[in-house]
Write a structure and sequence with these properties.
The protein has about 375 residues and is of the alpha+beta class. Helix 2 runs antiparallel to helix 6. The longest helix is centred in the middle third of the chain and has 15 residues. About 20% of the residues lie in helices and about 40% in strands. The chain folds into three domains: about 120 residues, no CATH class; about 80 residues; about 140 residues, no CATH class. GO terms for molecular function: structural molecule activity. This is Flagellar P-ring protein. Belongs to the FlgI family. One of its GO terms (biological process) is bacterial-type flagellum-dependent cell motility.
Amino acid sequence: MTVLRWILPLFVALWASIGNAQTVRIKDLVEFDGVRANDLVGYGLVVGLNGTGDGLRNAPFTEEIMSNILERLGVNVTGEQFRPKNVAAVLVTAELHAFSRSGSKVDVTVSAIGDAKSLLGGTLIMTPLNAADGQIYAVAQGTVIAGGAEAEGDAARIVKGVPTSGVIPAGARVEREVEFDFTQMTRIRLALREPDFTTANRIERAINQTFGRRAALMTDAGTVALDLGKTGLASPAHAIVRIENIAVQPQQRARVVVDQRSGTIVMGEDVRISRVAVSQGNLTLRIEEAPQAVQPNPFSDGETVVVPRTNADLTEDPGISLAEVPEGTSLSEVVAGLNALGVRPRDMIDILKSIKAAGALHAEFVVR
């Protein structure tokens, strides 16, 4: 009951904040056609580790890439046997931002793929980063900032965070630009992150009212097409600057999201519930094993025998006999009705599932 006392004020505060934030900028609701990032990936080597690198017998690919790097640097290692513990094979990932130009820098993430224990203090050697077309668009190099720590002794080992993964801020330099002439576009599509016909229609009307003519057209629930010629602006960039800060009121589907692992329940503003009666209780089964040793009398012919002994108990918690949840026309009324049941958040999840199955919860039910 104590846990639920703060749930109602929390939901009411959330509902109030949603009610106050009526409008959202278009740039926070859509993605502009052509304005997108590209994923990059590369395979490289981290050196300078303090004995926490790959065990080369378990990760032969580390030895192979190390040999290739040394060969390119003019060091002949053919036929040589080397087993350093200060290197680790890694995968390097990055995101090439839209309109990135040659010479600009992007952040990279470095992750071990062998049995290295930690990348702390390591340095990534020059690693080409490829896109989906197989072309090299950036080159990464720099000191890895690991996201954890590790300590080990003779009889114990402790690991905090993930020391086998790290980042290099501005660790990759762009070498090739994505060939895309944004200035030649005559139409731009606005793709809604949460497709909804009502929201798309409101975006269309807001843009047309801004330009005073029919420059935007909703094509489906997730797309609004913008005719750049009808905006009367000098370039597509000027058109986006003009429309991305237009405020509209998005329409969202009624949705209840629950996380069974943490017991978190989040409800949208438009959640509604019909009048329903709920009964809930718990059964607890306890089984205890208490074996007893029976010994023969002194100086008698016999042997000690272990006699099994089991205690089983089945109890039922009081729970909810049969409580009525009244019909709610607002989020605060729905929460007040559910909160009046006086159950724990995890039990509330089961109750919401049952209410949804009964057809009394009028919202999309999402379980994570």
